[in-house]
TrEMBL record:
This is Helix-turn-helix. It comes from the Bacteria. Residues 6-39 form the HTH cro/C1-type domain. GO terms for molecular function: DNA binding.
Amino acid sequence: MPATQFRAWRRSLGLKQKDAADLLGLKKRMIQYYEKGARDGKTVTIPKSVRLACYAISIGISDYDGKSPQKLDLKNLSD
């Protein structure tokens, strides 16, 4: 997933960088690096685990306990 696609993913869900970071279990700064595609002049690759988490969030999954997925409610995210 390229940086531009990652940013498009976040925006398509109406998420602020902080909200995306919270949902993915990351710091806001990592979201910024992923969207820029670089950190300190070096290319940043979005890990497969983050790409898969993006997909899960896209289809409405917020968590998984090994038995059943928990549904995501984007309406209740903080502003």
